[in-house]
Amino acid sequence: MELTWKRKLEWLVMVGFLYIINANVSEGGITSSFLRSYNYSRDMPLDSDVFRVPPGYNAPQQVHLTQGDHLGKGVIVSWITQDEPGSSTVVYWAQHSQLKLQAHGFFLTYNYYNYTSGYIHHCTIENLKFDTKYFYEVGIGLTTRRFWFKTPPPVGPDVPYTFGVIGDLGQTYDSNITLTHYEKNPAKGETVLFVGDLSYADAYTFHDNRRWDTWGRFAERVAAYQPWIWTAGNHEIDFAPEIGETRPFKPYTARYPVSFQASNSTSPLWYSIKRASAYIIVVSTYSAVGKYTPQYKWLENEFAKVNRKETPWLIVLMHSPIYSSYVTHYMEGETMRVILEKWFVEYKVDVVFAGHVHAYERSERISNIAYDIVNGLCKPINDQSAPVYITIGDGGNIEDLATNMTEPQPKYSAFREASFGHGILDIKNRSHAYFSWHRNQDGYAVEADSIWLHNRYYGTRSDIKQLA
User: Fold this and answer.
1) Residue 29: how many CA atoms within 13 Å on its side-chain side?
2) Cβ contacts of residue 51 below 8 Å, gap of 6+?
3) What are the φ and ψ backbone dihedral angles of 148, each rounded to 5 degrees?
4) What span, in angstroms and rounded, lies between the C-alpha atoms of 224 and 439?
């Protein structure tokens, strides 16, 4: 029966509607439809309360912690005094103890173009008791300041532990929201895994190092109370020969030391630590990693020596992701992937956290290690020995969000969204961990994305999803 013009029109409208729907169907996972504000992320003004200098002459400022040994019984305490060196000693004591102990550190300064730093103090406290709350004081006289931290439980396969995950933080209004959300999240971690790009001081004229100071005061409200495991990003390089600065990473390494020697590393840019049931390997994506380079040789030995019966959760931190479906920085990590991915798969890394791309993305477990230039096998495939790759460079930096995504969404991409936020990795036992991502626009406890991670060494195959 011949269709009337009205029926033809209805049919054409329906076909067009179905075409529009199908055009937005992804080959991969979910591209979030959440609508966030696209207002440009602005830096907080220098007179913001979060940048306030502590009162009192030569008061310690920019106090922060990181792990001070390989096992978690040591802590590096760092701070700055602006007027004079003062004391590099930390006084500390265990909760409920009357015995006050002392650890003695050192101070240094550095010059960068027309900037001279304050007196940067570093003091390592060693041989602490596991799973214990400690109070500590820095400074002298009327300007002594007191903080606290808690050491992790002893290293072991079934030790639960929670990490916060933050990247590309900067010092904008959005950065402040991210840090506040992390502070107030009921699931807040006990240690922060930081995947690079701290202050963004290099984004200012002459790499204005005063912005390292404001960032240090801004982050103190969290970093003075729980260790941050530092990863160097591209904004930490600070290589500027046009103004006479030819030593890469100068401000970063002066301000944020790590215990790299404890893992037999030759550089503070790559190292490892154990913490509870996790073994964490920090990779430098802005240092040479080709065969026979120092980082390559260290990583080759490091992956081989991990004892998964002791620390079942193998976690890698790096700045530039090796899998990302965003247009910004697309495939920048490819040379790193060629070198590193074979180790990630061989040693069954559980999860790789990266930043750099100013958005959030979670991958399926995939690998692309079969390609040998002539076999044509150059597409990622489902691989249950591979890690989940999580890009979380969404801390709130001045460069704003990466909103442009490759289309269609590739099969390896499970979830992606261009919003600011933070992550929580909650290790339950040797076989299960829970990761959740929290966008800034939601309530403190709301999960915008989450996944149960099944340990690659002890886990099951119940999380297998084929990339059909």
Assistant:
1) 17
2) 44, 171, 214, 217, 218
3) -150, 165
4) 24
Note if 329 is an active site residue: yes
To the nearest whole number, what is the mean pLDDT of the chain?
Answer: 92
Catalytic choice (70, 122, 319, 329): 329
Q: What is the C-alpha to C-alpha distance for residues 227 and 302, in angstroms, rounded to an integer?
A: 22
pLDDT at 117: 98
In DSSP terms, 415 is beta-bridged to 30, 362
Q: What is the rounded distance in angstroms from the CA atom of residue 285 to the CA atom of residue 287?
A: 6
What six digits make up the tokens of 197?
């790009």
Chain centroid offset of residue 413 CA: 19
Residue 125 is inside which H or E element, if any? strand 119-125
Please check whether residue 50 is in contact with residue 396, taking contact to mean a CB–CB distance below 8 angstroms.
Answer: no
What's the token pair of residue 168? 């590309």
How does pLDDT run across 138-149, given as a tens digit for each residue? 999 899 999 999
Each residue of 348-386: pLDDT tens digit? 999 999 999 999 999 999 999 988 888 888 889 999 999
In angstroms, the CA 79 to CA 224 distance is: 9
- CA dist., res. 416 & res. 325, Å (int): 8
Summarised one tens digit per residue, pLDDT across range 186-240 is 999 999 999 999 999 999 999 999 999 999 999 999 999 999 999 999 999 999 9
Per the structure block, which two tokens stand in for 137?
């004081």
Residue 141: C-alpha distances to residues 101, 135, 146 (Å): 17, 17, 12
